[in-house]
Design goal:
single chain, alpha/beta, Rossmann fold, N-(1-d-carboxylethyl)-l-norvaline Dehydrogenase, domain 2, 2 domains, nine-stranded mixed beta sheet, 20 helices, 9% strand, globular, disordered C terminus
Length: 445
Amino acid sequence: MKVGYIGLGAMGGSLARHLVNSHELMVCDLNKRAVTDFVEMGATAASTGAELAHACDIVMLCLPRTSNVREAIFGSGGLQDGITAGKLVVDQTSGVPRETAEIAQRLEKLGVLMLDAPVSGGIPAAQAGAVSIIASGSDAAWEMAAPLLNAMTSKVFRCSDRIGDGQALKLVNNAMGAGYRMVVLELAALGLKAGLSLGEITERLNAGDGANFTTKKMLVAKLEGKASTDFSLALMVKDLNEALELGLQTGSPMHITSAARNIMQVGLNTLGGGARLEDVFRIVGSLAGVDFDHDDAASDVAAMAETDRSSVLASIESAVDACNHIATIECVAMGIKYGLMTKPMNEVLNSGSAWSLASERVLGSISHGKPYRAGKTIERTIEALRNVARLSAKYGVPAIVSNAVLATFESASNEFGHQSDIGVMVSGFERAKGQSLRLESGSPK
């Protein structure tokens, strides 16, 4: 079986490298240097998509946007000009689910199968064969593609047989992770302004209920003087815009995702198109007036003397935990209303950048049809969020995401009562979105 790969950029090239030694590989890319590198490894080169499609049984693509995929398939000299019935197209782009489904319908008329299989995780993970691949498509498409996907990574998930669901779940994943990322950084900035060190903030969050992927990876890497990701900020904003569009299509409130996206958009506008996701440290630091690389300069002795370290750390931990809960519930609720199933979401989201202790607990309950109880009252959570709001005013630090979370809990207190367990937030989102988070039809393939 001959395999073709189009799109040899940082991610596509990292994925395609896993196929060089195990499959007969043909490649195509606008970057001739990238093509030459693969030829030197043993692949063959195609000058056009049509040539590649004619020669290969399976064609894989990893491009910046769905519009690029459409052009690569149906544009002049594209796959359409060389592909024949019975072949398979695998789209690894972080794309637009609805548009990908439309592409699949056009290919189906040609007798060509399609599977979407976007990637979650950074370039180092892709190079190491540890990235997550989230696939969706028909049984026939899955059977053809699975050996190739498994050659790329040990973490391959099939979330459904409906084309586009893999991309939709990738958007849910990125939206949750963005909410975590921005609340952790804005509250870490608050802690620095209040006289805490980044080390003690990180230690407290990772030892308690506030733990999430950002605290475990991004903060730890910063303390070690390393970058945790090389992902493009522009592409992250693109993914968040698409996640918010799914929220609009399904009538789903996405307050935390919207707040996170707005901060990142400010950063992108300020730093330009070459900005990386790691630059959110600079963005949040600039907004808060702190330098994450020199946290000893963030506060003065007087501020440290005024601050009860234990109390501030406890409030920050509780606020991050509250955001982890709301980011999880709002994104999962949107996914369910779109048509995704909770069991695949539980597997995928808790295997990568959308992981948090809250997501582990919430999804662990609702994916088994059980009501979620956190063992914490709305009153206690609001108290911590109000403390954070007051500290943010005192030290001049924006609390954009955490204040959105506070507003959500204040509304829940009015509806359910302040002594209710915060698990009732699941019911609140069920009402707002008109969808049960614990009932689903069908089963993951």
